[in-house]
Amino acid sequence: MFLRKNALERIAKERVLYERHPHGDIATCLIYPNVYRLGMANLGFQAVYQIFDRDPHVAIDRVFLPDPDERELMSTRGVPLHSFEHDRPLSDFDIIAFSISFETDYLNVLAILEMARIPLRRGERAGRHYPLIIAGGSAVFLNPEPIADFIDLFLIGEAEEMLPEFLVRYHDCRARGIPTDLRLAEMAEVEGAYLPDYFTPSYDEAGRLREVAYSGPKRPHVNRRLIRDLDKFTTSSRILTEESVFGDMYLVEASRGCQWGCRFCAAGFMYRPIRYRSPEKLVAEAERGLTERKVIGMVGAEMASVPGIASIADAVADRGGRLSPSSLKADCISPELARALARNGNNSVTIAPEAGSERMRKVINKNLTEAEILRSAHMMIGEGVENLKLYFMIGLPEEQDDDVIGIARLTAKILEQARAAKQRIGRVTISLNPFVPKPWTPFQWDPMEESRSVKRKISFLRNHLAQLGRIELDPESPREAYFQTLVSRGDRRVGRILERLNTERRYDSGAIWHGLTAIRREISSGAGDGLPDPDFFVHRAYAHEEVLPWDFIDHHIAKWFLRSERKKAHHLHQSPPCDVVRCRVCGAC
Ligand code: SF4
Fold first, then answer.
1. Best of 365, 565, 579 to mutate for ligand 1, by most ligand atoms within 8 A of CB?
2. Alpha carbon distance 490, 550 (integer Å)
3. Which atom of ligand 1 approaches the CA of 273 most closely?
4. How confident is the model at residue 431 (pLDDT cuts 50, 70, 90)?
5. Which residues are CB-neighbours of 387 under 8 A, at least 6 positions away?
6. What residues form DSSP beta bridges with 193?
7. How far apart are the CA of 371 and the centre of ligand 1, in A?
8. Is a pLDDT exceeding 70 seen at residue 1?
9. CA 317 – CA 220 distance, rounded (Å)
10. pLDDT per position as a tens digit, 308-364
11. pLDDT higher than 90, residue 541
12. Which residues pair with 429 in a beta bridge?
């Protein structure tokens, strides 16, 4: 049928770059809770797939969220979701593993379970024969609570570190004949495993989290796991397909974490301390990639600080390829890097000033001056890069209208500087993202700005940019940011909102927004069916002394440090970047 045909065509077009392992007896289905072209562009998903595939005890398969037309067809024909590679019902597997990079995909987790005809709530599956449902990935590192009622066990940490351990234990439990219902407690012994059943939240009269009672055998914290030495593992494209959103690239992960400590950025805190792959490893991986693709996509939070990046870009260009870094911090772009990136026809580069004014860049700890941004733009355009993409955020804590106008002022200066130097500049795109407060950052206590106010700011920025001519403004919708904030900062009760959205089949951003608006309206009219108010998690400042939904995870970052960073933001004080050799201040090193 149609769905199977689609899957077989996709599999036929894939190119697997490693030797696959003969199948074992633990039937495991790895799920990316979004569509195929996004899942296959995700290095984390590919890395986890290979870990499963290499385990001699595992027989691995995949599932993606069906495309909208496939979904439509499944619903009209009443067809349940089957696995991608072997067309098996999901309930046939021993383990279902969700790899979740983005918290907005939490809603898709519910949709997929339902399409697979598996009861959503853990309690409804208890005592019946269903697969063990686990979840990992960067979204659940930060805050797994919105889906805690639907998942049996989470793995909080980097998969290379803990997934093999988990599989050894699972295999051992099976070999010892431990029944499925008793296996969970054994699996929870793996360091970094989070068993939601052990943690019971309670709330005060104002609806805030009062405490989380712990009933497990160990300490009431989950120690998130990280690998120390990235060189021990290769995280690059393992399966290539042109249908992936980065289909023309071979992706290589260069680093995890970030040394700069921008106060809004989850990656800069959750992956501490910063770890880089060695230049030798990166060149070797890039060389391998060049046998498959002309473009090497270098992935990580900030690429201009990667040791040896200019010579890596040169090595790629020498072999006729092109390095495409995910994002560059303007002041770290050296003339050598600008020259190397511009070779072999690289005509677009992304720079991330994040804020338009010097004042706001101090608030967010960007450690970046206007002169540095202008210098880097001048260098890149001078070397032949035609198109610039500039990333900014809007609605940041402490932001005033003048800071937003600062985005247009800075863009005008970049254009003016290019004109004065008679440089040829092509397309300038302003990518604008509403601020979303993220757990484990100094801004975790801050609310998201009201959508109305963000929209007003976007509109007057658009008017200011219109005066500059050919500038493309690409704003993310405040409605999408609202939902992202809800699932980033929400506690376990947000699961009920997800259930409601899933029941009403509200999956795209417009439908989600209308669903959330309806819930808010019901609550304010005294109904609401026991649902929590989404605004409570989105537009409320959390108090410093409040218990936060993600407090039970130990990310090794002292809370006082995050508080002091937040205080520094209010006073426009910046902190220096990480010095992993000498510094011990935040607790992560
Ligand atoms: S201890 Fe210092 S160097 Fe290490 S992650 Fe924290 S701030 Fe950075």
1. 579
2. 9
3. 5
4. very high
5. 347, 348, 349, 426, 427, 428, 429
6. 155
7. 27
8. no
9. 51
10. 999 999 999 999 999 999 888 999 999 999 999 888 777 888 889 999 999 999 999
11. yes
12. 389, 472
Concatenate the DSSP letters of all residues of 443-475 into one string: TTTSPPPPHHHHHHHHHHHHHHHHTTSSEEEEE
pLDDT in tens, 18-27: 988 778 999 9
> What local confidence, expressed as pLDDT, does residue 165 receive?
96
State the DSSP code for 286. H
Q: Return the pLDDT at 292.
A: 97
Query: 584 in ligand 1 pocket by Cβ < 6 Å?
Result: yes
Q: Is the CB of 589 under 6 A from ligand 1?
A: yes
Ligand 1 nearest-atom number relative to CA 272: 5
Residue 141 and residue 224 in contact, taking contact as beta carbons nearer than 8 Å:
yes
For residue range 551-566, list pLDDT tens digits in order.
Answer: 999 999 999 999 999 9
| pLDDT tens-digit map of 55-109 | 999 999 999 999 999 999 999 999 999 999 999 999 999 999 999 999 999 999 9
pLDDT at 30: 98
Contacts of residue 366, Cβ cutoff 8 Å, sequence gap at least 6: 260, 262, 353, 354, 355, 574
And the tokens for 577? 């970047």
Report the C-alpha gap between 128 and 126 in whole angstroms: 5
Contact present, 297 and 250 (Cβ < 8 Å): yes
Provide the CA 86 distance to its chain's centre, in angstroms. Answer: 28
DSSP one-letter code for 504 = T
Using CA atoms, how far apart are residues 464 and 403, in angstroms rounded to an integer? 13
In the chain, the percentage of residues whose pLDDT exceeds 90 is 88
DSSP, residue by residue, 183-244 = HHHHHTTSTTEE-GGGEEEEE-TTS-EEEEEE-SSS-S-EE-B--S-GGGS--B-SEE-TTS
pLDDT at 21: 78
Are the C-beta atoms of residues 484 and 538 closer than 8 Å to each other? no
- Compute the average pLDDT of residues 394-422: 95
Residue with tokens 């289905």: 29
How many whole angstroms separate alpha carbon 402 and alpha carbon 329? 23
> DSSP states of 346-411 as a string?
--EEEEEEESSSHHHHHHTT----HHHHHHHHHHHHHTT--EEEEEEEES-TT--HHHHHHHHHHH
The residue-averaged pLDDT of 416-426 equals 90
Q: Cis link prior to 273 (omega < 30° from 0)?
A: yes
Nearest CA to ligand 1 atom 4: 589
Question: How many angstroms does the Cα of residue 271 sit away from the middle of ligand 1?
Answer: 11
Average pLDDT of span 219-237:
94
Q: Is the CB of 296 under 6 A from ligand 1?
A: no
Bridge partners (DSSP) of residue 95 are 28, 132
Longest dimension (CA), the chain: 76
Give the list of residues 6+ apart from residue 584 with CB closer than 8 angstroms, or none. Answer: none
